[in-house]
Every structure is written in C-alpha cells, then in structure tokens.
Write the structure tokens for this entry.
Amino acid sequence: MASIPPPASTATAPARPAGNFAVLRQRNFAWFLSGTTLSNAGQWIQQVTLSWLIYELTGSGAMLGTLNLVRSVATLGLAPIAGVAIDRFSRRGLLLATSGWLFAISAIFGVILSFNPGLIWPLFAFSFLGGVAQAVSQPLRQTVVFDLVQRAYVPSAVALVQTGWAVMRSLGPALGGFLILWVGPEGNFFVQAGAYGLVAFTILKMSFPPERTALPAGNTRGNLIEGLRYVIAEPTTRAFVLMGWVLPLFIIPTFSALTPIYAKDIFGGGPDTLGALLSAVGIGGIAGGFVTTALGRVERRGAIQLGALLLLSFSLIGFGLSAALWTALLCLGLAGFFEMIFLTTNQTLLQLSIPDELRGRVTGIITLNAGLMPVGALVAGFGADIFGPRLITLILSSIAGVIAVGVYILSPIIREYRLSAAMEKHT
C-alpha cells in the first residue's frame, strides 16, 4: 500500500513559538534547511552558467527566453502529476530520487561540454532534464516543511527556507560567474553534481515521521482533479495563487532573462558583472528573509504583501533607469529585499490555506506558476531585442506596480487578511 508521512501539524503544537528562530533548534528542520540551501546553490550556479553560455554563443535575448521556455515544458507537464505522487509515495524516497537525478545529469553534461564546449543543444537538453527534477523537487520541498515542523513554527520555517534561497541567489551566481573564469562552464556542472551529492547526504540524516496510508493506488486523474477543484473553489487559496503569478510574469524575467544583457551590453562587463548583478538581488533577499522571519505574529500579512510588491516595482524601475553600475546594484538589492518579503508572505499564507490531506496535490498545481516564468522571460527577451532592455524593464515593472495598487483597492480578501486567520485554518 502506498504511503506518505503524517503531517507534523497534526501533533500538539505550541500556541506560540519560543522566538522567531526557535525552529532552527529542531534537528530535522536544520538538516532540511541545509539540504534545500545546497540544492538552491546548484540551481543558481546552473542558471548563471546556462544564461552566460547561451548568450555568449548566440548573442540573442530571444534565445535566453527560449532556454527558459524549454525548462518550463517539464514543469507544466509534470508538476500536477508530481503533486499526486507527493501525496501517495514516500517523500523521503522522492527527495533522494530527485537529488540522484540532478547529480547524474550534471555530471554527464559536464563531461559532454568538456569535449565540445561550443555545442548549443546540450544546454537545451540539460535545461529540460533539470526541469523534470525541479517539477518534483519544488512542490515536494514546500510540502515536506509541514512534515518536519509543527504548524505554529511554519511561518518562521518558510521564511528561513526562502532566506536560504536568497543566500544562494547571492552567493551562487557570483560563484558561478567566477567559476566560469576559473574552471570553465563544464567545471560548473561538476560543482553542481557535488552540491547535489551533499543534498542526498542531508536527506539521509533526516528522520521523517512514520509513514501512513494516504491515497489509493491508481485514479491519478481523479486525485489531480480533486486538488484543482479545491484551488478553484477556495477563494483565499485562489487569491494568493493569482498573486503568485505576478513574480514569474513581470518580475523574475528581469532577473533571469535581462541581467546577462545588462551585464554585457549596457555595463560592458563579463561573467563577473553578471554574477554581481544577480548577487545584489540575493543580498537584498537575505535581508528581506530575515526581516520576514522577525515579523513573528504581525497580523496584516496581506497588506504587507501588497506593499512589498509596490516597492519592488519601484526598485526595478530604478534599475532600468540606472546609468551607473553601482546604482543598478543598489536598486537590485532593494528589489531583492522587497521580492523576498512578497514571496515569503505569499507562500506562507498560501500553504496555510491548504488542508494537509490535499497539500501535495494542491502544491503541485500551484507550482504550475513556475511555467509562467519562461513565458515572461520570452516576452522580456523579445522585448529587449525590439525595444531594448531598459524599456522592457520599465514596462514589466510598471505593470506589477499597477497590480499591487489595483488588488489593494479591489480585493479585501488579500488587503484584510490576518496571520491569525491563516494559522487557525484547517486546524
């Protein structure tokens, strides 16, 4: 009989955690946070390597967008099915399988590029195969948080996981950029393989709760539809899902598709400049993650989310208007700060709105918003080719700002949402 671990939220949870960082004293979560951060390191080294290689070989912003689009094909096709698997099979086993897959393909493609670094097709193949693993890994790691920590600790746990992601967004691109200079792009793939090997070690060190029967075998389509129906029918979940679309469509494309163009064509730099631009976003994100963790029991999380989005849009408008590299770095740092507050708040309230028995399936459906990221990247890439990177940055950022103001005026569900309401839901 298939099984999954019981959610930790079913255990008796303290009404209030002893400090915003108390969750770090829980051994299983500490190992999970370490492994997730290492996994993020591999992903960011991968992103800077692929982005730089494809632009260096083709000189096309559209090709940058297309590379991201190829990756999204796997996410769009597999994420909902992955959600059913998360609710059906051992989550520990799935974590090990995805880490092993990423280790293998990173090592293999490192060997391929060692023999012929001018090939373009391996970049697209690796992007697709990496997307297969991430289609499972992303919703899986969001779900596992609820297996490892009690519900009262969830806001702090989610914020710390996102902060670890920001740390690697800061260090990973910088490391990736310098590694391109030191060991070549093929060497970066071997570094990624090593990171995923360490991730597997952290999984082996974790103790999961005893497994229990969850979904019956078969009937995948019915289980998938059940999760989709919940998202459509539940207004709070639906509202936060739609808000989650703003980042991949209008914000992240500037970071993923346009920064290589800014680095090479506007600021006249190389891989180190690209790494610096992406690292500035990560440094701001680290600060934003710690600020979000320190919010503790602050209630007006819905309004905080919208305010962070508005300030994020202003920061990227400043980036698009920057004439000097130092002002661009400052604006990207602010953008990373407000993006992290927006993202962490959105993910926390969204996950708390989902019942434990549906968490994997609903999270798999939510992960489909990652499939929107390459759409935004493709628009940004073509826009950069036609209008230039500065103008398309201003357009996308302004749209995000208008959305923040519009939702504040028109959506009381988000504007008035309180953390206490989220904590009490499904308990």
